[in-house]
Amino acid sequence: MAKMGTSSREAAAIVVMLGFVLSLAVVCNGGKTSSFVRKEKSGVMPLDSDVFKVPPGYNAPQQVHITQGDQLGKAVIVSWVTVEEPGSNTVLYWSAYSKKQKSEGKVTTYKFYNYTSGYIHHTTIRNLKFNTKYYYVVGIGHTERQFWFITPPEVGPDVPYTFGLIGDLGQSFDSNKTLTHYELNPQKGQAVLFVGDLCYADTHPNHDNVWWDTWGRFTERSVAYQPWIWTVGNHEIDFAPELGETKPFKPYTHRYHVPYKASGSTAPFWYSIKRASAYIIVLSSYSAYGKYTPQYFWLEQELRKVNRSETPWLIVLMHAPWYNSYNFHYLEGETMRVMYEPWFVKYKVDVVFAGHVHAYERSERMSNVAYNIVNGICIPVKDQSAPVYITIGDGGNTEVLATK
Ligand SMILES: [Fe+2]
Fold first, then answer.
1. How far apart, in whole angstroms, are the C-alpha atoms of residue 216 and residue 221?
2. How sure is the predictor about 290, in pLDDT bands with cuts at 50, 70 and 90?
């Protein structure tokens, strides 16, 4: 508003200016997607929490989890841990339309510093029918435990499907709220796209791997019944030379198997699956991604394989976001962006989900691929061929939220 004594021309200029500022505010306001605001920080749930409870019975299977077991969704990897002895690797499974069948898997163990794991079982069930509810049993004798899952519909362009999205979950009281929030969501997610940072065991002294076990028991109530699609985060690296632990991802790779070979990948950290109408590419922010590296060669070939008339949705998962306006982890995704963003624009990736930054943030469709060392063109521009970037790292782990 113009002050008394200001000339009418100046007043008009101020009004125009105000109008411009207001319209900018309207243009820049991305809107509010939820009224939920997480508290600043909540503590790790104590070891005797009910969500960490060990199932009763001698050698009872625990930490049961499933993920997609092939590229199309006709196979499921079932994993679980037994503590007292190896027990059985067999999964017994059936549907309303088929008799009981058995699938045999393998068992593994590992040591991490002064921790020794239980017996970790992985069994892949193959040749399942699409869109079918299967029951399955793990364990033997009086410690059998029964669960179920529903296979996805056959891959196709018009197949609806609902994914849940979780990142940086951890095992705080807020993590439990996140999982409950997901379970109670009326949209009923059918599978979870998990963008890395699972249990945060590495934040405990000596990376105390007991926290991998508690997390497995905590999440079982969801992941035993629907597949979670795994991406690695920095908290899965567990690189600890001071403890004599120099093989990155050791606990993660023993506990969480993914169908990487089905998509021609040579390592479990980058791979792809198709599910319903979506083609999902999982990348590793913590494996080499420079030119001539295995991940680079794989992604170069992989993007060519996507047939948008079969899977119109092209989704990429990674841990460290390429676009991040928070000061937490600022520019950590930049070197990978420089390597791969031109491909994402060329192949018109729809959406990229990342975690790592403990906040929610969503971009417009924009790219920043014009830069070379002499032209100075280094500002993101609106680009309808570019993905939308969504950060969902606010899963509730005990580290602080990104707020600045
Ligand atoms: Fe992270």
1. 10
2. very high
> Which residues make up the environment of ion ligand 1, defined by Cβ < 5 Å?
197, 233-234, 356
Q: Provide the β-strand partners of residue 390.
A: 353, 362
Alpha helices in 202-352 (DSSP H): 210-223, 250-255, 294-305, 334-346
Query: How far, in Å, from the CA of 199 to the mean position of ligand 1?
Result: 11
Mean pLDDT for the chain? 92
Ligand 1 centre from 336 Cα, in Å? 15
Which residues are known catalytic residues? 329
Helical ranges in 33-92 per DSSP H: none
Q: How far is the CA of 196 from the centre of ligand 1 (A)?
A: 7
CA 110 – CA 97 distance, rounded (Å): 39
- CA 188 – ligand 1 centroid, Å: 26
Q: What is the pTM of this model?
A: 0.91
**3-state SS class at 272:** strand
Largest Cα–Cα separation, the chain: 92
Residue type at position 296: Y
Q: State phi, psi for 100 to the nearest 5 degrees.
A: -70, 135
| Helices assigned H by DSSP within 125-209 | 173-184
Residues in the chain: 404
